[in-house]
Amino acid sequence: MSDLPPAHSRESGNPAPLQPVRASPHERRDRSLRIALPIVVLALGLLIWEAVVRIEDVPPYVLPAPGLILQTLVTDWALLGRSLLVTLVMTLEGFLLAAVGGVGLAVLFNQSRLVEYSLYPYAVILQVTPVVAVAPLLLIYLPQQAAVLACAWIVAFFPVLANSTLGLNSVDRNLADLFSLYGASRGQVLWRLKLPSALPYILGGLRIAGGLSLIGAVVAEIAAGAAGAGSGLAYRIAESGYRLNIPRMFAALLLLSVAGIVIFYLLSLINYFALRRWHESALAAER
Amino acid sequence: MSLSTTTNSAAPLVALRGVGKTFASGTVALAGLNLHIRPGEFVSLLGPSGCGKSTALRIMAGLSEATEGVVEWPSAADGTRGKGRLSFVFQEPTLMPWASVFANVKLPLDLRRTLSMNVAERVGAALDHVGLAGFRQAYPRELSGGMRMRASIARALVTEPQLLLMDEPFAALDEITRFKLNDDLLRMWQTLRTTVVFVTHSVFESVYLSSRIVVMAARPGRVFTELAVDAPYPRDDNFRTSPEYAAHCRRTSEALAGAMAAGGEP
């Protein structure tokens, strides 16, 4: 057995890439294109937009030029920044509640069939009822902040629940046999087998939930804004709409998009770092 | 060397008496199976697919319940399956992809809450046995198929089992890797003086490895005949190319052909 380390060459299969794989020149060019091309498209679009507005002399309350929107973003930053923070805090709280609630409920369902049968239909009902229609009702019964939070949660928790449930049920049968062979307790099976197996699914659910919790918060804020209360970004959009302050609407919208993109990439990054050593989805394709 | 163990006439380690298994679907996987595994033996269960050899192994492991007959553990103090004394190697390596080789091999000790100071030492020794000492921090994904199977065997050995049950562990590997693992498995078996029950559908593999071959027939799964392979251990490439080996293979092939005829090919 002492002759083993050359086992690499003796035994078939891929040699072990124990070091991070160096990108080939071709891959590097591909990657820079993937970053450069969207930026070029964006710049072109903005240029044309700016040009059309200037040449046609479009008034700002119809369509503000990109330059004006940026300028508004700077001049109104005190107001918009505060609103952004309000919306982000709501989104984050809704997301965290959705993550804890979704994974927690999935674990509970997994441990007890009776609980699953009793509650699952209601989880589905929460999911299929449009949140836009529910938000005004919530605003009647709950204080405004709580209502926004509830909306963010309702929209975001279901993908976490559904994905976690799928993940917890996708355990390798042989591994499950192995655990029972060695007399693993329920807790050990959950912590050492089911949750790690479900991790890629849970993270996938969280990635969806991140964007959805922003949507939930915005929807509730719009509904609240219609009632004339609120301080989040969506409320600013509604308010600016009433005042025909279109540049500020665009500026707020821009902030919302950026927030959504940042949330998505942060969650993708977490996903990558959690899975990069072992899961197919996060491994560099090398063939 | 370890020849003495194969002629051990002590009480069987495990005995299956009249074991039958009928699945809920009505399929009769096993009927009236009698099988005695003596301490120190290397027994192969050989047969066509559908002869219930894997089912028999799972029943021994307690992963499946017999619907008829009994499984006895005469040498165990309480006559029941000593949970601590048994390990199972599946057809796939069945490693946890999210854990390092070291953590994978350590798993049985963790699950049994082995609170000994030398857990790391035991894991290290098991990895040494299979020749993976340099790969403890690697992830299964980073290993070749043969090395994953080695890790799987290390995990089975870490509890120092009395009985090692192997369900076609090398079936998915190429022949070169398979020969190498066959050699290493024999060496480990002799060093550790454990008992092995090895399910295979390869005549050549069963002859090379076993001290006894149990040929099974299908529909319903049962023992067709038993053959002793009395060639001495250690066995190596010389044995693999010897006329004696060829003769054993011929005999075993004939028995297998008989079993297949008896099982009524579908």
Polypeptide structure, described:
Chain A has 287 residues and is mainly α. Chain A has two domains: 24-57; 60-281, MetI-like fold (Orthogonal Bundle). Chain A has eleven helices and no strands. Chain A has helices at 7-10, 25-56, 66-75, 77-111, 113-128, 131-141, 144-168, 173-181, 186-226, 233-242, 246-275. In chain A, helix 3 packs across helix 11 and helix 6 packs across helix 7. Chain A is flat and about 75 Å long. Chain A starts with 6 loop residues before the first helix and ends in a 12-residue tail after the last helix. Mean pLDDT of chain A is 86; it is low at 1-20. Chain B is α/β, with parallel strands linked by helices. Chain B has a single domain (3-263), classed as Rossmann fold (3-Layer(aba) Sandwich), CATH 3.40.50.300. In chain B, 37% of the residues lie in helices and 21% in strands. Chain B has nine helices and nine strands. In chain B, strand 8 and strand 9 form a beta hairpin. The N and C termini of chain B lie far apart (44 Å). Chain A binds chain B through residues 1-2, 4-5, 7-8, 10-18, 172, 174-175, 177-184, 188, 192-193, 196, 199, 277-279, 283, and chain B through 61-63, 83, 86-88, 90, 92, 94, 96-99, 107-108, 110-112, 128-132, 134-135, 138-147, 150, 159, 173-174, 176-177, 180, 184, 187.
The assigned CATH architecture of the largest domain in chain A is Orthogonal Bundle
CATH class assignment of the largest domain in chain A: Mainly Alpha
Q: Going across the major beta sheet of chain B, what is the strand order?
A: 5-6-7-3-8-9
Q: Which percent band covers the strand fraction of chain A?
A: under 5%
Assembly category? heterodimer
SSE series of chain A? HHHHHHHHHHH
What is the end-to-end distance of chain B?
Answer: 44 Å
Number of domains of chain A: 2
Model regions low in confidence, pLDDT < 50 over at least 5 residues of chain A: 1-20
CATH class of chain B: Alpha Beta
Number of helices in the DSSP assignment of chain B:
9
**Coarse shape of chain A:** flat
Number of helices of chain A: 11
CATH fold annotation of chain B = Rossmann fold
Helix/sheet category of chain B? alpha/beta
